[in-house]
Design goal:
α1 runs parallel beside α11 and α5 packs parallel to α7. The protein is built from twelve helices and ten strands. The protein has one domain: Metal-dependent hydrolases (TIM Barrel, Alpha-Beta Barrel), CATH 3.20.20.140. The chain has an eight-stranded parallel β-sheet. It is globular. The N terminus is likely disordered. By secondary structure, it is an alpha/beta fold.
Length: about 300
């Protein structure tokens, strides 16, 4: 079984890529623009891949190769349950010419809000761990939203951030990392951003602001932007039930928040969804079809993510 796993992963990636190519061609046929141009120099800060403990469509090496073949500049590998800083170091050796970063999600498997885990990530070979996501899968807001009965990780109590959260934010500021709000509630997210600003964090981002369980409204996104954070809008699967209305809502929110404060990413890699680079390209084209200019799309998919990651 172990010997057949790489072949199965490769076959899944091939089938998914062929399906996504059809979606991209359809978008181009609708006058949405050139996918090659859209992805040239693009940066996706939200990519899921194997190795993981749940089904993914592609492994970290193959998604990096695909991103490089599409002319992308960089990707950020994300895993809900372990740091991807080491993975980023290894994949860079296999796929030169593409900037690859990792990070850490502060879920239960790394000890929750654990300053020691963040400090360790900064010392991993290469120094490619760049993002610190507050709890995602194990966030209190996620567990309550999903109406589950299981342990969770809190970031605040009675409207105040927990001391260990403030300690982690201090480390983010000290090491020049990116503070990402994870699956925190809108109110918790704003608390995190205010504390990040107070402690001098240079780069902050609201994780998939319009997607469940975060679901920030426009007023909250505008406040987050005023605090100095980028607002992340994720494409997910650009086809399927509800996709058109979801993309309409994203385009409308971007206009109200402003492209200067917005970042686009795929949040792809789930089995059955488009491969991240192809889905990302389809997302950009879909927004172009909704009236966003090439200049604004480049700002959100290339320039703003570069600033977030400290790339020149």
């Amino acid at each position: 079984m172990k010997k057949t796993l790489p072949a199965l992963v490769a076959l899944t990636a091939l089938v998914t890529s062929l399906t996504t190519t059809g979606a991209l061609r359809a978008a181009q046929g609708a006058g949405a623009g050139d996918a090659s141009r859209a992805l040239a120099g693009a940066i996706d800060v939200h990519v899921h891949s194997y190795p993981d403990d749940r089904p993914r469509s592609v492994d970290a090496i193959d998604v990096a190769k695909l991103a490089h073949s599409r002319g992308m500049r960089a990707i950020v590998l994300k895993n809900h349950f372990e740091s991807t800083a080491g993975t980023a170091y290894l994949v860079r050796k296999v796929v030169p010419g593409l900037e690859i970063f990792g990070g850490i999600d502060l879920n239960l498997t790394v000890g929750g809000i654990n300053p020691a885990a963040v400090e360790h990530m900064t010392r991993v070979t290469g120094g490619w761990g760049r993002l610190v996501w507050m709890p995602t899968f194990d966030a209190e807001n996620q567990v309550r939203y999903s109406k589950e009965s299981r342990p969770f990780v809190s970031v605040a109590r009675d409207g105040e951030l927990l001391p260990e959260v403030k300690a982690v934010i201090g480390l983010i500021a000290k090491h020049g990392l990116v503070l990402a709000t994870g699956h925190s509630s809108p109110q918790e997210g704003l608390l995190l951003l205010r504390e990040g600003r107070r402690q001098g964090v240079g780069q902050m981002v609201v994780t998939h602001a319009t997607f469940q369980p975060v679901l920030m409204n426009v007023t909250q996104m505008q406040e987050a932007a005023k605090l100095g954070a980028f607002i992340e809008f994720v494409g997910g699967n650009p086809e399927g039930q509800g996709a058109a209305s979801r993309l309409d809502a994203i385009a409308d929110a971007i206009r109200q928040v402003g492209p200067a404060s917005s970042i686009l990413s795929s949040d792809l890699g789930q089995q059955g969804n488009p491969l991240p680079p192809d889905g990302f390209g389809a997302f950009i084209l879909a927004l172009r079809a909704r009236g966003l200019s090439d200049r604004d799309l480049d700002l959100m998919s290339k320039e703003n993510p570069a600033r977030l990651l400290g790339l020149r």
